[in-house]
Design goal:
single chain; 323 residues; mainly beta; Elongation Factor Tu (Ef-tu), domain 3; OB fold (Dihydrolipoamide Acetyltransferase, E2P); 14-stranded antiparallel sheet; 4-stranded antiparallel sheet; 3 helices; 20 strands
Length: 323
């Protein structure tokens, strides 16, 4: 048993020595040899400094909601005596929706009062959080039935019973929360390209714009542990079959420059607050050059000082260079 442990210990030590030797070869001796020989540059890593356009785009996401979604309630508490509309029907402002008989039972002799549509819109059933938690077979997908008791806004102003919703789907909105740094770059009226996530990458972008930017931070996140600003993007429906509640992604151009010097983003190396590139000077040699940068996105970096058009730079560190 002792001999086995002794041999096992030797094997482990041997494997560690091999690993250390391999690491030393790949990360120290081999790069040093390559640097002495001048083999420091891979041709595939060389790119040219070019003039072109660069654009910064804000990307966000949210859930599509109707711009106007009104909960219709009864003013007096009472029992529904008649319903004149059905779900999915479009009604006009001032149209009679139902009759409600004030009181808690049929024996209270009060005159029935009409409930009118406060706005024009499509009739949709009210749903509360309890409905979402029920099994589908237990959900009531219809409007309230005749004889249902509604708590009115006169009797309980803070929590009247929702009779139905009137939704205007001519214009849709996408609410999203953005950070303090992001909100400073957004302005009302900015155009937005909007894609419905479920349609995939090949979906044709829809055209919308930013219509509201909050000036006050709100608590967001599941536990209210984030502070962000509410931003609303507006999307005309234009007879497109867009459903409420689906997820959408937004792209909003923030800033663009044309015909400026650019390099790929992976050609930029930063250290101690300064920006550098490795300029290829020929004969397998490079020179580290400090540069100044301007507009930057995920793919390109604008170069304002330190390089000229057609200079060549590396997108990877020269072999043997530590950073």
């Amino acid at each position: 048993m002792k001999n086995i442990k002794k041999h096992l210990k030797k094997i482990i030590i041997l494997l560690l020595c091999i690993a250390l030797a391999a690491a030393a070869w790949f990360y120290a001796f081999k790069p040093l040899i390559a640097k002495i020989k001048g083999e420091v540059v891979s041709p595939a890593d060389i790119v040219s400094v070019e003039k072109g356009d660069i654009e910064v785009v804000f990307k966000g996401s949210g859930t599509i909601t109707a711009k106007q979604d009104i909960k219709v309630t009864s003013k007096p508490s009472g029992i529904i005596q008649a319903i004149y509309v059905r779900e999915g029907e479009y009604v006009k402002k001032g149209q009679k929706l139902a009759l409600i008989k004030p009181g808690r039972n049929e024996f209270e002799d009060y005159k029935a009062l009409p409930i009118y549509a406060p706005v024009s819109g499509t009739v949709i059933k009210c749903l509360n959080q309890d409905d979402y938690q029920k099994d589908f077979s237990d959900r009531d997908l219809s409007l309230p039935r005749l004889g249902t008791f509604l708590t009115g806004s006169y009797d309980d102003a803070e929590n009247p019973t929702c009779f139905l919703r009137l939704v205007n789907m001519d214009t849709l909105i996408i609410p999203m929360y953005v950070t303090e740094m992001q909100v400073l770059k957004l302005k009302e009226g900015m155009p937005a390209d909007i894609k419905i996530d479920s349609l995939g990458e090949n979906a044709v972008p829809l055209k919308g714009n930013i219509t509201y930017i909050s000036t006050q931070m709100e608590k967001t996140g599941r536990w209210g542990d984030n502070n962000n600003f509410l931003v609303l993007a507006e999307l005309p429906r234009d007879e497109k079959n867009i459903l409420l509640g689906v997820s959408a992604s937004l792209s909003i151009p923030i800033e663009k420059k044309e015909n400026v010097l650019t390099i790929p983003a992976n050609a930029l190396f930063e250290k101690e607050g300064k920006s550098y590139v490795f300029k290829y000077v020929g004969k397998n040699k490079t020179e580290r050059v400090e540069i100044e940068t301007g507009l930057t996105n995920d793919q390109k970096v604008e170069v304002t000082k330190g390089l000229q058009e057609n200079d060549r730079v590396l997108t990877e560190l020269p072999y043997g260079e530590s950073w």
